Amino acid sequence: MTGFPRKSTLIRRRRSALLGGVFGLAVTGIVVGQFIPPYSMPANAQITTSQPAGTFSFADTVEKVSPAVVSVKVKKDVNAQEMAMGEDGPFGGDVPPQIERFLKRFGLEGQGGPQGQMPMRPRADRGEKGERRVVGQGSGFIISADGYVVTNNHVVDGASEVDVTTTDGKEYTAKVIGADSRTDVALLKIEGKTDLPWVKLADGAPRVGDWVIAVGNPFGLGGTVTAGIVSARGRDIGSGPYDDFIQIDAPINRGNSGGPTFSLNGEVIGMNTAIVSPSGGNVGIAFAIPSETVKTVVNQLRDSGKVARGYIGVQIQPVTDDLASGLGLSTSEGALVAQVQPGTPGAKAGLKSGDVVAKVNGDTIKDARDLTRKIGMMKPGANVELSVIRDNKPINVAVTLEQIPNEQQQASLKQDDGDEAAGTGLPRLGLQLAPAKSVKGAGSDGVVVTDVEPNGPAAQRGIRSGDVILDVGGKTVSNPKDVRDGLAAAKAENRKAVLMRVKGEQGVRFVAITIDAKAKG
Length: 521
Prior knowledge:
The protein has 521 residues and is α+β, with helices and mostly antiparallel strands. It has three domains: 60-305, Thrombin, subunit H, CATH 2.40.10; 310-410, PDZ domain (Pdz3 Domain, Roll); 431-514, Pdz3 Domain (Roll), CATH 2.30.42. Helices cover 20% and strands 31% of the residues. It has helices spanning 7-32, 59-65, 80-84, 97-104, 153-156, 291-304, 321-327, 345-349, 368-376, 457-460, 480-492; strands at 69-78, 123-126, 132-142, 148-151, 161-166, 171-180, 185-190, 211-216, 224-235, 245-248, 260-262, 268-275, 286-290, 310-311, 314-318, 335-340, 356-360, 363-364, 383-390, 393-400, 402-403, 414-415, 431-435, 447-452, 468-472, 475-476, 497-504, 507-514. The strands form five sheets. Strands 15, 16, 17, 18, 19, 20 and 22 form a seven-stranded mixed β-sheet that branches. Strands 1-3-4-7-6-5 form a six-stranded antiparallel beta barrel. A six-stranded antiparallel β-barrel has the order 8-9-10-13-12-11. A hairpin with a 2-residue loop joins strand 27 (497-504) and strand 28 (507-514).
């Protein structure tokens, strides 16, 4: 059937004709453009690239702070064995076990890690005595006009030479003033300068959702700027006892380690230190050390070249729901003192096993790790007031911090894993017990566990053969009957759980055993 074409067909034909005409004009203009007078666009249709007033841009901040951001190039002499490690070595893409544990929580084990100093296998040159000189790169930033530079400890660790290059291409030799592996902060110094551009470490913490700007040296490319927001705060990625990372989504890659993250007013709110990456590149999860931590560590490194941390001298563990119930607490906040070491500041101040530290100098303690961070960031000699809950009553304890005597005791503020197994009722513990005095090597105090029923309530709480039960429900025990009496007393008081203080291979800890209302004593 013949007739008029459909409307849609006409539209397509008109569009084709129009496009053909435009294309024809373009070709004609190319071939004989000199004969065609220039087309004058009406003023009201003119396209402009100038930004309207009030348009948001990071350019002003970047222009102000970039001169203080540097690339850090390090050289290290390594032997043949270290070189054989290849990319698993200190200058490659190795994934430390603590980061791997963090990734494992999300099913990403074997797929990520901290930012390396190099995007690929490091360059190596033959040195003396068969050694090879390995070159790696990272980032840093100047914090004073006289040349103090901050970067990551893992960027300069073991370096024989350190050079820093500014964004205008000037290169300086830097000296490592000091470094702290526990917070991954290092301080460098450019000698002989008094007029270098510098940036300020922020006094306050950013809010989740704030804009941030990261500047650094990804893949050795030099000054590179990325932007994003603060995704979260207070992140614990398992890299150490003082974890308190800021999580950002600004694109961060290998080589950004040690570089600054800025607020919009140009202050450093954090130092980039690690990424989570299934592919080795940015996926929008990066971690920065808060400026407060950087400032505290840098001040000590500048004064003495090392970090001296205060300690109380107690073993602590989290307050789980079961432990809170056993202690008669309404919340599971705070840090539970499992053991007070003799002769330590905590012992001198009168802290006792079973105390729950709720506040430090008026600041609420969320958990055991929070207490570890707060005390670890204080200097020896500092006077600290602890708000403690003891026997359901609040008391204040004044403690004068002392310096950790040696490296072995730097875990004296130890966070135990606590007792997180689910309660199953308590018809019996599933333990065979004997007075500690009767078992060789068990000591003279408490009741030793000689055997554990694999599926019993005690085994579910992590009690193992050889552990020693020191007290039950706050009362010391010396024989199996004392243990049973402690359980019966807790049941008579209608408690949901009873606390047992247990000494094992990992030190002393509290274990909460759930009491079933129908359980026999």
